[in-house]
Amino acid sequence: MVVAADWAITAARRAASYGERGRVTVEDVQARMYDDFRVAAVPRDVAGDVLRERFELRAGYFDLDTDAYDDIPEET
Questions:
Q1: Is-above-0.85 flag for pTM?
Q2: Taking a C-beta distance cutoff of 8 angstroms, is the pair 71, 25 a contact?
Q3: Per-residue pLDDT of the chain (76 residues; tens, 9 = 90+)
């Protein structure tokens, strides 16, 4: 799934116009898992965890937006 997240991040960067922020979503990772590896049952929370990890490692916050942080439960 790490590869699918990396490919989704790369695709989002390539799709963005110069000076524009790209967007990579949890659904992008799930779609890459299906399209590239034929894995259909990837839970959203698992894909989101992997996307967050790769997003942070690859400095996505500089030029990308993501919904990977939207589903994190708030700590009490």
A1: yes
A2: no
A3: 999 999 999 999 999 999 999 999 999 999 999 999 999 999 999 999 999 999 999 998 899 999 999 977 666 5
Residues contacting residue 24 through CB under 8 Å, at least 6 positions apart? 8, 9, 11, 12, 51, 55, 60, 64, 65, 66, 68
The DSSP H or E segment spanning 21 is none
Helix (H) or strand (E) holding 28: helix 26-37
C-alpha separations of 52 from 21, 30, 46, 67 in Å: 17, 14, 10, 9
Write down the domain spans for the chain.
2-66
Distance CA 4, CA 66 (A): 15
The label of the residue with tokens 């989002």 reads 12
